[in-house]
C-alpha cells in the first residue's frame, strides 16, 4: 500500500471540504474555501498517479478553478456520466458545472496564483431553494436526479434532466441535514442529520421509508458533515457518526428490514464520512486451495474526526487497514477511483490529501455496470494542448530572442485582422456614444464568445494570443520570464529589482525596507520619503472610496467604517508584507494573462465593430463567389434525366442501375481558346457561318506561331481542345475530329456514344469524357485506343459524387477528380481505376516528411500528382507540425503515405514526380533506420548483376534508368553510418556494373 | 457569483508626460448577458492624506455586454492640477480603476503612480511650485492591486432575501471566516475577505 499526500493540491492554505474523483479517473475536484469566496478546483489525476507526471512541468496539475460560490463549498460531486459537476456551499446555492469549449487559458487578474485554467468549466445552472448552507449533494444512479441537503433541515431533489426544475423537497428532519446517499438501484435515498436520525426515503413517492434513530440516540457533539454511504450491492447502508456503548461507530443498516445489528467500531472520535468503493470484489482462487465458492464482498473507507482512516471489507471482521494521523484536522470527505485502487481523502484543516493504493487487496472486481462512462477525450485533449503550446512556444522562440521581433508572430487573425492590429486601433475604432444624460458610453469589442451550448472541441485552431505582446504566459511554460517580455512592462524601464523594491516599500512596511536595505534604485529616494503616505495609500486599494458613490447604502456604511479603519490597516500591512515578494516577482506574468482563442471567435459571426464589417463582407461574398464559380466549373452531376427515368419506370429496367449523366457544355455561337503556350496555338470556332445546300457549316480557325489555317465542319462545334501536337473538336452530332497542328485531319471522325462532356489533349493523346460517363483515350500517333469507353460508374458510386476535374497527362494517363476529394486515374496496364489522391486521407494529414525534403529548394514536384493533390500536401505538412500523434504511429503513417505517393506517381507515369518521391522515401527510410525496406529498394533498383534469360527485371521505370536512381539514392544512404555496409555493398556492385 | 471577471488591464502610453490622458485597455469576461451597463471610473488620488483630494478623472458606461470576452480602451484626461496639493504633486500616489454594476462596486484595480521630473536638475532641486509640464507620470503597470467585492448581480428582490439569511455558521468552529454579505458593505476591519487578491 502506498500513501501519497500531494502537497500541490491546495486551496492556497484554505480548508478543503470535499473531494470527488471523476468517473473516468483522469481528474478530480475539490471544494472548499477560497480567498474571499468558495472555491471549486479541478485537478489532473495523472500527476497523482505517476511521479514522472508530477515532475513534468508541462503536465498541468490544476485544470480549472472556479471562484463563483460566494461562500465556502461543502461538497463537490461528479455526475455518474462525468459530464457535470455539482457543488453546494454555504451560499445556499447548488451550482452545476459543465465543461465548455476552451477559449484560451485564463488566470485571475492580479492574483498571485500563476495557475491558469487549462480547462473551461462553466456554471450551467444555479439551483436556489435552500435557505441555509448546502452540506452535501448526490447524483442519483443514471443521473436522473440530483439531491442536495442543507442546514435548513431539508433535502431537495432536482430534476437533473431539466435543471433548475425541482422535483420535491423532503421535509422531516428536525436538524441540520449533513449527508446524502442514493441506493445504487435508485429505489431509495438516505439522509443523515444532526437530529440523531438517519432517514430512508422512497424515490417512488418521495415518502419516508424508514426512520432510524436508535444508534444515534447517544450522539453528542457535532461533526461538520455526516456523509453516509450505500454499498454497491445495495445490501448495506453505513451511517456516519453513530454511538454504541458510548463509543463512536459507523452503523451498518441492512436493507433487509433496516436492521441495525452491526457496526464498524474503533474510531476514537465521531465518524464524519463513510464511502464504499464502487466496485464489488471477489477473492481470487488461490492455487491448491479448496474450490469453495467465494463470496463477493465490498470495501468501505471510514474517516473520522480523530484524523484517522479505516478501510473495511464486508468479508472481514476487522479493518483491513487503519491509518492514523493522516491529517491535522478531521477527515471531511473520501473518494474512490472507479478502478477501485486509490482513495484520496480530504481533511478539513488545510489542503492536501492522501492517496492509498490498495494494490494487494484489489482482487477481482466486478463491474456494477451502472455508470461506467469512460471518455478518453480529456487526457487526449490535455496532451494535445500541451503539444500545441509547446510548438507555439517553439515558433515564438526565435522571435522572443531578439528584442525587436519579440512580439510573437502568432497567426492570430481575427477576420483577417490580428488582435495586435485591433489593439492598436482599439481606441480609435471603438464605438463611443453619449447617453441621453450626456454620459460617455463605450461599446466593448467582443473578442471571444462564450459558448453556452454544447461542448465542442474547438481546440483545433486555438492559437493563444498575448495582448500585452508577451510570449506565452501560461504556467505550462514557466521558463518564459519577465526578461523575455517586451510590451508595456519593460517599457517602464524598471529592472525587476527596482520593481520589487518599490512594491515592498510601497507596502509601507518598515519590514520591506529592512529586507531590501541597501538595494539601489532610483525610485528608492522618492518612495522612502513617502513611506508614511504610502501606507495611507495602501488602504485606497481596498476600500471603496467616496469617489465611487455607488448606492446610498454604501455611503452610509462608509461613514460607519471610519472607526474601524485603524485595525484594518494593521492587518493589511502584515498581509502586504507577506505577499509582496511573490506578487511582485510574478507580476510580469500577471500582466500577460490573457490569451484567447481566435479561431473560436472567428467562427462566430457576431463580432462587434470592424470585425462585423468583415464578416458581413464575407457573408455576402461567399454566395456570389459560388454563383460565379458554378457556371465556370460546371460541376458534373450524376443526374438521371427525367426523360429517361420515366420510361425506365414503366418498362421496369432490367437492372436498377442509375444512369450516369455528366453535364455537357452548351453550344455557343463562337468561342476561342488558347490550347498551347509554347508554341502558342490559338483556336477560334465560329458555328453556323454559312449555309450550303441547307446544311450549316462551322468554321475552325487555328493560329500557330503566326501561321493560320482553317477548316470547316458539318456540325456545330461544342468544345475543342488541343496540345502542341494535336487539336480535337467535338461537335453536336457526337462526332470527334482530330487534326494535326497544321490542320491536317489525323483520324477519321470518331462517333461518340453520347455528347461530349469534357475533352482534353496532351502531347499526342486525346481524351474524351462523354455525358454518359464513359472515358476514352486515344494515342493519335500510333492510332490506337489506350482507354476504351471505360465507365466511371465504379468511381462515381455514392450519393452526390460528381466529377470536379479531369485532365490528361503528357503520358496519356487520364485523371478524374471527384467532388469527394478523391482523384483516380485509369491505368491502362492494370485496366482499372486507381486511386491517386484523397484529400480526406488521414495519412496525408499526418505524414511528416519535412526532414526528408531536398535541402536545396529543388523544383518541388510539379506534375499531375501535385496538381491533383494540390495544396493538400502543404496542409499535411502543416498539420503534422501540430499533430500530437505518437512518434511510432506518425512514422508508420508517413511511411505509408510516401509509398502511396510512389505508387501513384508510378501509375500516373509521372517520372519526375516518381523520382522526387523516391528520393524523399529513401531519405525517410534512412532517417528512420528501416533497413529491410531500404535493402529491398536498392535490390529492385540494382536488378540482377549478371544477365540471365529468366529475369523479368526492367532496367528502366517511367523512362528513368533504375541504376541511375540507385546512384542518386546511395549518397543518401551513406549519410547514416548505420547503413555503411549497405552503402558499400551496392556502391561496389554499381562500380562493377559500370566497368563491365 | 461574480458575472464579470477582469482578465487584464494594459496600461497604454506609459510612462508619459503628466498632462497626457490616462489610457487603460481593459479586457474582461462576462459569464452571461448583462441587462445593464457596467460603469467604469478612473480615480486619481491627489493626496495620500485625505480622500478629499481624490479626483474622478472620468466615468464611462460600457455596454451592451453579452456573454463573452470583451475589451475596450478607457481614456480619461489627466488630473486637474489645481486640485492637487502642491506638496503631493511629486512622488508616489495611486490611480484607481473601479467598476460598478447596478451601482455596486465589484472590482477595484489600483496602481502606484510615480510622478517625477525627468530633468536631473529639477529632480535635485524641485521647484517649490510644481512644474507640471516637466513632470513625467509613470504607472507601475506590472503591479496592479486588485480587490474584488461581492455584490448582488441580480435585481433588488434577491438582495433583501440575502440580507435576511445571514448565517453565522456556528458549527464550523471558527474555521471559516464569516461569509461576505451580498449587497451590503462588509465591516472592513474584521474582514479578511475584503483583502486584496494578490495579498
Automatic annotation (TrEMBL), chain A:
SMART domains assigned: WD40
Composition bias type Basic residues, residue spans: 365-377
Main location group: nucleus
GO CC, any one term: HIR complex
Domain CAF1B/HIR1 beta-propeller span(s) in chain numbering: 1-214
Residues annotated as domain Protein HIRA-like C-terminal: 743-941
The protein's name in its UniProt record: Protein HIRA
Organism, scientific name: Pleuronectes platessa
Automatic annotation (TrEMBL), chain B:
Record-level GO BP terms: DNA replication-dependent chromatin assembly
Location in or out of the cell: Nucleus
Main subcellular location: nucleus
Gene Ontology molecular functions: histone binding
Cross-referenced SUPFAM superfamilies: ASF1-like (SSF101546)
GO cellular component: chromatin; nucleus
Coiled-coil regions listed in the entry: none
Domain of life: Eukaryota
Signal sequence residues: none
Keyword terms: Chaperone, Chromatin regulator, Nucleus, Transcription, Transcription regulation
Protein family (similarity comment): Belongs to the ASF1 family.
Protein name: Histone chaperone asf1b-B
Organism: Pleuronectes platessa
Higher taxonomy: Eukaryota, Metazoa, Chordata, Craniata, Vertebrata
Amino acid at each position: 500500500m502506498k500513501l501519497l499526500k500531494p502537497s500541490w493540491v491546495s486551496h492556497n492554505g484554505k480548508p478543503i471540504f470535499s473531494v470527488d474523483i471523476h468517473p473516468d479517473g483522469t481528474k478530480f475536484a475539490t471544494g472548499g474555501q477560497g480567498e474571499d469566496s468558495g472555491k471549486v478546483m479541478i485537478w489532473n489525476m495523472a500527476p497523482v498517479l505517476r511521479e514522472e507526471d508530477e515532475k513534468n512541468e508541462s503536465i498541468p496539475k490544476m485544470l480549472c478553478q472556479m471562484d463563483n460560490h460566494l461562500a465556502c463549498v461543502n461538497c463537490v460531486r461528479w455526475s455518474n456520466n462525468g459530464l457535470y459537476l455539482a457543488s453546494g456551499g454555504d451560499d445556499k446555492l447548488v451550482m452545476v458545472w459543465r465543461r465548455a469549449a476552451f477559449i484560451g487559458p485564463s488566470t485571475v487578474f492580479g492574483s498571485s496564483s500563476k495557475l491558469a485554467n487549462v480547462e473551461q468549466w462553466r456554471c450551467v445552472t444555479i439551483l436556489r431553494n435552500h435557505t441555509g448552507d448546502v452540506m452535501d449533494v448526490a447524483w442519483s444512479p443514471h443521473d436522473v436526479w440530483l439531491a442536495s441537503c442543507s442546514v435548513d433541515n431539508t433535502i431537495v431533489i432536482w430534476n437533473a434532466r431539466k435543471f433548475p426544475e425541482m422535483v420535491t423537497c423532503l421535509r422531516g428532519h428536525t436538524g441540520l441535514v449533513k449527508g446524502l446517499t442514493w441506493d445504487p438501484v435508485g429505489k431509495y435515498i438516505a439522509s443523515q442529520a444532526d437530529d440523531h436520525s438517519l432517514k430512508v426515503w422512497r424515490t417512488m413517492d418521495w415518502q419516508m421509508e424508514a426512520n432510524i434513530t436508535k444508534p444515534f440516540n447517544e450522539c453528542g457533539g457535532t461533526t461538520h458533515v455526516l456523509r453516509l454511504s450505500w454499498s454497491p450491492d445495495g445490501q448495506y447502508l453505513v451511517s456516519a457518526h453513530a454511538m454504541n456503548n458510548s463509543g463512536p461507530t459507523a452503523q451498518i443498516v441492512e436493507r433487509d428490514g433496516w436492521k441495525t445489528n452491526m457496526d464498524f467500531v474503533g474510531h476514537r472520535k465521531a465518524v464524519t464520512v463513510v464511502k464504499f468503493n464502487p466496485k464489488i470484489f471477489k477473492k481470487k482462487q488461490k492455487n491448491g486451495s479448496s474450490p469453495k465458492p467465494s463470496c463477493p464482498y465490498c470495501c468501505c473507507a471510514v474517516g473520522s474526526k480523530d484524523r484517522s482512516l479505516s478501510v473495511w471489507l464486508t468479508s472481514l471482521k476487522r479493518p483491513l487497514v487503519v491509518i492514523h494521523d493522516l491529517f491535522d484536522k478531521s477527515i471531511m470527505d473520501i473518494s474512490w477511483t472507479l478502478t477501485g485502487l486509490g482513495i484520496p481523502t480530504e481533511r478539513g484543516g488545510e489542503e492536501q490529501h492522501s492517496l492509498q493504493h490498495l494494490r494487494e487487496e484489489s482482487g477481482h472486481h466486478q463491474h456494477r455496470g451502472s455508470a461506467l462512462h469512460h471518455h478518453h477525450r480529456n487526457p487526449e485533449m490535455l496532451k494535445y494542448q500541451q503539444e500545441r503550446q509547446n510548438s507555439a512556444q517553439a515558433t515564438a522562440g526565435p522571435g522572443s530572442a531578439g528584442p525587436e521581433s519579440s512580439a510573437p508572430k502568432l497567426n492570430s487573425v481575427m477576420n483577417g485582422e490580428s488582435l495586435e492590429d485591433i489593439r492598436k486601433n482599439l481606441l480609435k475604432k471603438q464605438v463611443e456614444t453619449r447617453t441621453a444624460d450626456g454620459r460617455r458610453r463605450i461599446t466593448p469589442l467582443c473578442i471571444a464568445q462564450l459558448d453556452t451550448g454544447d461542448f465542442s472541441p474547438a481546440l483545433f485552431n486555438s492559437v493563444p494570443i498575448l495582448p500585452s505582446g508577451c510570449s506565452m504566459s501560461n504556467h505550462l511554460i514557466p521558463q518564459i520570464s519577465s526578461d523575455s517580455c517586451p510590451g508595456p512592462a519593460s517599457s517602464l524601464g524598471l529592472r525587476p529589482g527596482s520593481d520589487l523594491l518599490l512594491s515592498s516599500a510601497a507596502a509601507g512596511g518598515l519590514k520591506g525596507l529592512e529586507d531590501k536595505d541597501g538595494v539601489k534604485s532610483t525610485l528608492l529616494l522618492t518612495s522612502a520619503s513617502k513611506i508614511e503616505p504610502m501606507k495611507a495609500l495602501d488602504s485606497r486599494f481596498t476600500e471603496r472610496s467616496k469617489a465611487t458613490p455607488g448606492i446610498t447604502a454604501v455611503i452610509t456604511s462608509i461613514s460607519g467604517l471610519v472607526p474601524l479603519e485603524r485595525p484594518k490597516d494593521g492587518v493589511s500591512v502584515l498581509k502586504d508584507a507577506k505577499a509582496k515578494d511573490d506578487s511582485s516577482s510574478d507580476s510580469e506574468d500577471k500582466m500577460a494573462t490573457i490569451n484567447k482563442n481566435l479561431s473560436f471567435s472567428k467562427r462566430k459571426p457576431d463580432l462587434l465593430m470592424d470585425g462585423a464589417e468583415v464578416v458581413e463582407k464575407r457573408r455576402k461574398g461567399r454566395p456570389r463567389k459560388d454563383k460565379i464559380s458554378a457556371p465556370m466549373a460546371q460541376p458534373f452531376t450524376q443526374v438521371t434525366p427525367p426523360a429517361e427515368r420515366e420510361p425506365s419506370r414503366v418498362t421496369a429496367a432490367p437492372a436498377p442501375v442509375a444512369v450516369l449523366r455528366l453535364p455537357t457544355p452548351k453550344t455557343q455561337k463562337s468561342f476561342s481558346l488558347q490550347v498551347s503556350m509554347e508554341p502558342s496555338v490559338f483556336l477560334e470556332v465560329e458555328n453556323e457561318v454559312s449555309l450550303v445546300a441547307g446544311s450549316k457549316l462551322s468554321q475552325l480557325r487555328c493560329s500557330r506561331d503566326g501561321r493560320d489555317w482553317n477548316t470547316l465542319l458539318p456540325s456545330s462545334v461544342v468544345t475543342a481542345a488541343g496540345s502542341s501536337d494535336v487539336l480535337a473538336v467535338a461537335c453536336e452530332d457526337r462526332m470527334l475530329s482530330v487534326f494535326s497542328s497544321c490542320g491536317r485531319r489525323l483520324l477519321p471522325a470518331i462517333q461518340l456514344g453520347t455528347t461530349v462532356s469534357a475533352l482534353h489533349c496532351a502531347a499526342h493523346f486525346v481524351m474524351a469524357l462523354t455525358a454518359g460517363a464513359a472515358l476514352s483515350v486515344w494515342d493519335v500517333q500510333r492510332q490506337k485506343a489506350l482507354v476504351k469507353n471505360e465507365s466511371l460508374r465504379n468511381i462515381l458510386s455514392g450519393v452526390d459524387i460528381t466529377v470536379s476535374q479531369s485532365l490528361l497527362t503528357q503520358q496519356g494517363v487520364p485523371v478524374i477528380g471527384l467532388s469527394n476529394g478523391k482523384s483516380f486515374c485509369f491505368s491502362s496496364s492494370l485496366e482499372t481505376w486507381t486511386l491517386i489522391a484523397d484529400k480526406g486521407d488521414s495519412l496525408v494529414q499526418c505524414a511528416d516528411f519535412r526532414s526528408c525534403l531536398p535541402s536545396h529548394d529543388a523544383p518541388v514536384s510539379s506534375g499531375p500528382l501535385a496538381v491533383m493533390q494540390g495544396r493538400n500536401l502543404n496542409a499535411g505538412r502543416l498539420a503534422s507540425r501540430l499533430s500530437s500523434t505518437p512518434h511510432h504511429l506518425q512514422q508508420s503513417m508517413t511511411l505509408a503515405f510516401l509509398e502511396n505517393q510512389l505508387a501513384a506517381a508510378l501509375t500516373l507515369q509521372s517520372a519526375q514526380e516518381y523520382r522526387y518521391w523516391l528520393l524523399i522515401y529513401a531519405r525517410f527510410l534512412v532517417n528512420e533506420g528501416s533497413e529491410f525496406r531500404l535493402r529491398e529498394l536498392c535490390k529492385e533498383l540494382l536488378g540482377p548483376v549478371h544477365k540471365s534469360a529468366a529475369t523479368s527485371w526492367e532496367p528502366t521505370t517511367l523512362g528513368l534508368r533504375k541504376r541511375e536512381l540507385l546512384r542518386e539514392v546511395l549518397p543518401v544512404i551513406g549519410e547514416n553510418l548505420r547503413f555503411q555496409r549497405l552503402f558499400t555493398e551496392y556502391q561496389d556492385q554499381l562500380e562493377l556494373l559500370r566497368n563491365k | 457569483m461574480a458575472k464579470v471577471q477582469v482578465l487584464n488591464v494594459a496600461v497604454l502610453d506609459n510612462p508619459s508626460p503628466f498632462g497626457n490622458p490616462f489610457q487603460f485597455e481593459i479586457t474582461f469576461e462576462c459569464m452571461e448577458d448583462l441587462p445593464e451597463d457596467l460603469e467604469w471610473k478612473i480615480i486619481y488620488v491627489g493626496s495620500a492624506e485625505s480622500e478629499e483630494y481624490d479626483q474622478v478623472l472620468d466615468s464611462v458606461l460600457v455596454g451592451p455586454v453579452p456573454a463573452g470576452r470583451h475589451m475596450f480602451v478607457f481614456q480619461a484626461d489627466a488630473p486637474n492640477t489645481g486640485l492637487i496639493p502642491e506638496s503631493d504633486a511629486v512622488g508616489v500616489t495611486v490611480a484607481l480603476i473601479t467598476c460598478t454594476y447596478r451601482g455596486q462596486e465589484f472590482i477595484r484595480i489600483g496602481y502606484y503612480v510615480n510622478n517625477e521630473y525627468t530633468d536631473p536638475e529639477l529632480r535635485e532641486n524641485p521647484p517649490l511650485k510644481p512644474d507640471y509640464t516637466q513632470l513625467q507620470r509613470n504607472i507601475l503597470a506590472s503591479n496592479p492591486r486588485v480587490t474584488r467585492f461581492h455584490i448582488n448581480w441580480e435585481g433588488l428582490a434577491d438582495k433583501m432575501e440575502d440580507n435576511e439569511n445571514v448565517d453565522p455558521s456556528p458549527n464550523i468552529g471558527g474555521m471559516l471566516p464569516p461569509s461576505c454579505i451580498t449587497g451590503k458593505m462588509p465591516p472592513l476591519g474584521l474582514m479578511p475577505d475584503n483583502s486584496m487578491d494578490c495579498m
